[in-house]
Write a structure and sequence with these properties.
By secondary structure, the protein is an all-alpha fold. Helix content is about 75%, strand content about 0%.
Length: about 230
Amino acid sequence: MSESNHYDTLDVNPKATATEIKQAYRRLAKLFHPDSKRETADSEKIIQVNAAYEVLGDPIRRRSYDRQMRYSQPQSQSRNRQQRTADAQTSYQRHRQTAQDADAQLNEWLQQVYRPVNRLISRILNPLDAQLDELSADPFDDELIAEFQAYLEDCRHYLNQAQLTFRSQPNPATVAGAAANLYYCLNQLGDGIEELKLFTLNYDDHYLHTGQELFRIATGLRYEAQDAIKHMA
């Protein structure tokens, strides 16, 4: 975890229930509230406690916060990636064309999986800045929101195509690292699309910023996959 987070502030486990979080907040609010006249009264602490509960006490904001925490934990994320990669590899191994020459298999994967998936990812990522620029003219304009929602629906379509294409063949062992980065890239895009969709429903900038951050992470993962492929040349 990061050195300081809302769960630490409320002194609860990240898997705590909503009831446990509420109870912890009430206990700390009584303990630190400046008007309590207790020796423990602390105005700075109560500000931190209130800020933590505003996030963790809201199920939607808590889910988004949990995702942000995972993205800010490189070591934990690395372990998670390794586990997910191992799971994916187990599935791929069942369908591996064991009799196929390794070079031919690699070329087929590059032509039929890697390049098509990259083109579909481009259709999702490349228009984002222009779409946001148009929307920024008036985020509350119904026509602009409708156009942005149409873009997100296109993104969902391209993402679905990319995921189906990615799963259409087992990845060669020689490109396991690149394939893993591509896999996580698609996951981040899926989460990012959902966050941006939530923004169009309630105009909360938190969802907009989270969606942009998820797209940024996806872009980084895509670059890592591209670098891995280039280094094979």
